[in-house]
Amino acid sequence: MSVSCGVECVVILGCLRWGWKRCTYIGSDDSATWPIATAEEFEPIPRVCRIILAVYEPDLRCPKFAPAGGYRLNPDWVIKRVTYEQTEGHAPPYIIYLDHDNREIVLAIRGLNLVKESDYKLLLDNRLGMQMFDGGYVHHGLLKSAIWVLNTESETLKRLWEENGREYKMVFAGHSLGSGVASLLSVIVANHGNKLGGIPRSLVRCYAVAPARCMSLNLAVKYADIIHSVVLQDDFLPRTPTPLEDIFKSIFCLPCLLFLVCLRDTFIPEGRKLRDPRRLYTPGRVYHIVERKFCRCGRFPPEVRTAIPVDGRFEHIVLSCNATSDHAIIWIEREAEKALESLKEHSTSTVTTPPKVQKLDRKLTLEKEHKDALERAVSLKIPHAVASSEEEASSSTEEGSSVPKSVDVDDTEPSSEKEKSFCKTARTNWNDIVEKLFKRDESGQLLLNRDISVTEK
């Protein structure tokens, strides 16, 4: 009797301890060790949020949902506006905006529309491990939508880029569902720059606001130099490891679903999560806007933390009443603008001269952070992870290759043959190594080059 009572007490204490840890876990804990972002690198994000908000406006000259301070956009620079009727369910609505002030060509995609059946079909077009692309797994429906957008707008984007001296940046931006399409669109363009007139990877940028988990961890780290994800404090979507279709099947009981997901993932070892190549993650470098503290009421001046996390990349659901409100694009734009003003005040108060040297050092630090993240992914034995040296060698090989690459919707069909071919090409070409190290004699036997030189002497 005493033994059973002791076991019950241990179980109860364990459950209470787990419940206390889960209830006291707040969104700022995910980025507690990250460094603070600089004003220079965070400056485009509020502006991009306003461009995404402009997708919802039928006429920017007479806006109905303008944020505080207005959109600050030139309506004459809106090149194209695409609605649901024009996309025919292949993609969410989007606009193409030519920003001459910042020398950018922006394609902005809106988020999920809860009353549109086509958005749900796009989101539900996926199964765990259904689609491989570029050595990793991605969301099948979002990839298919990204390819449709590229095939539809490639000529327009190519023309705009060439007409403006082939110097403007190509920026893809999206919120929620649109963030997944924009992220995969940037990955395609980075690998198939010939579709847009040969644009280099260095001029491709993506801003995923309230991002959906759309690619495996090796891809999320690999493209951290061009994809920037923005998360507001407790946003549920970047932290939800369950397939997206499960979320929206249970949209009317989202708190219950989030609690069950939280309970399940608590007991899954970290190593098992990292070894699963099919598990999807938030893409690229992450900017986490933090504005609330534990057991403190109200919002505080927001601060922006940034990193390229490998392990612990928003793996824990936050049980918060703000988990859904922090997903709204209008709140993200508002807090991002406040955070940028705070970063500018901080930079002006500490720097008295033009920060030319400091800015260069920060750029080198960003590059080093990306290399360190790639090495970290390799050390954790993440499936299909590639070291920074191998990534640089492969990118230089692709740039020097004269064979054009094409993108077609048929290429998105999942197949085991593609996975096998990837595994073959990912390994070292042993035939080339043999030819370099060995020579065949007259009898056909392999001899080391060193042995051949000795026999000749």
Features of the shown structure:
457 residues; alpha/beta; Rossmann fold; 2 domains; 8-stranded mixed β-sheet; two-stranded antiparallel sheet; globular; Mono/diacylglycerol_lipase_N; Fungal_lipase-type; Calmodulin-binding heat-shock protein; hydrolase activity
Give a verbal description of the structure.
With 457 residues, the chain is α/β, with parallel strands linked by helices. It folds into 2 domains: 21-409, Rossmann fold (3-Layer(aba) Sandwich), CATH 3.40.50.1820; 411-456, no CATH class. Helix content is 45%, strand content 14%. It has 17 helices and 14 strands. It has helices at 2-23, 39-42, 44-54, 84-87, 117-124, 140-163, 177-191, 217-222, 244-249, 254-266, 270-275, 329-350, 356-379, 388-400, 416-426, 430-437, 449-456, and strands at residues 78-82, 94-99, 104-109, 131-133, 136-138, 169-175, 204-209, 215-216, 227-232, 280-281, 285-290, 303-307, 438-440, 446-448. The protein has an 8-stranded mixed beta sheet, sandwiched between helices. The protein has a two-stranded antiparallel ribbon with strand order 4-5. Strands 8-10 form a two-stranded antiparallel sheet. Helix 7 links the parallel strand 6 (169-175) and strand 7. The longest helix has 24 residues, at 140-163. Residues 400-406 and 415-430 have low confidence and may be disordered. Residues 385-424 are annotated as: Disordered.
